[in-house]
User: Fold this.
Amino acid sequence: MHNLKTSFFGLKLKNPIIAGSSGLTNSISDIQDIEKAGASAVVLKSLFEEEIRVETEKNMTKMVASGFVYPETMSYFEYDDMDDPLGNYLQFIRDVKKSVKIPVIASINCVTADQWTYFAKQIEEAGADAIELNIFALPTDINRTSQETEDLYFNIIEAVLKQVTIPVNIKMGYFSANLAKLIERISKTKIAGITLFNRFYSPDIDIDNMEITSSNVLSNPDEITMPLRWVGIMSGRVKCQLAASTGIHNGEAVIKQLLAGAGAVQVASTLYRNGVQHINKMLKEVTNWMDQNDYKSVNDFMGKMSQDNSSNPAAFERVQFMKYFREF
Ligand SMILES: Cc1cc2nc3c(=O)[nH]c(=O)nc-3n(C[C@H](O)[C@H](O)[C@H](O)COP(=O)(O)O)c2cc1C
Assistant:
């Protein structure tokens, strides 16, 4: 018997494969299939901060008109109107919770700490087991210092943690001049986990039609190297658990991330490419490898190849290819 149990999001999970937020986690039947395929948890498709703010402003206007004016009262506002996206999201959480047994993690894609964070409490009350905040901070504003850009994470975390008691996870990108320090500082807030990394929409240029297009919506297996490096470097240095995301397409990739020190992995693109049943195949690949290497439990090898535990720690930080350049 293999023990695949792990934990992430402050939750006990039956195995390390989580279905990450995507269009496949936006319908009850897909989520039921994801559960059947063996995923240990599901992160719902994100609600965008902007959607919350637009709805909040509409509701505020209604409240002001009726003399009910304090912004704090938003947290008591009932979202029963099925035509509104916030009500729909809360109802979706309730419905998913009734339909599957695995933990259900709500997700918010956010860029500020303004006027939306009260909604985290509504998500908790709807029954979500945890919340993932997909914080999108692309440092493109030349009028902002890196400190100002990074303060964003802490402002959001502080505001959301005031609202909820369920675990909060941060899914972040890798754009930072001082990424290791940023990850370490985030891990010292009271969040439950950090997911490295979100994969951003990437612009491309269509030279025939002179248009900006989106490139490679789905990841490729070779994209694992970026999160692998940072999970390996950071897993021994953070105060919360790390999960890995981006480029995890098969069991081998899951094993690599666990060896680097991830407590769990999130997968999305491989489910689009191979169908959600692929989770089951990935789990089999993990257990086969465990058999071949005499591991009974994932805890027996988790972090074994992290920078802290590796016999060649410098390999995680090497950025130049002296040897390879010579050979080529
Ligand atoms: C079609 C699609 C939709 C996605 N939607 C969301 C989303 O709503 N919220 C979010 O946090 N991540 C979203 N993601 C990002 C994934 O959760 C994941 O972090 C990213 O795709 C990298 O993992 P992968 O290489 O396994 O795809 C989406 C990804 C895809 C491919």
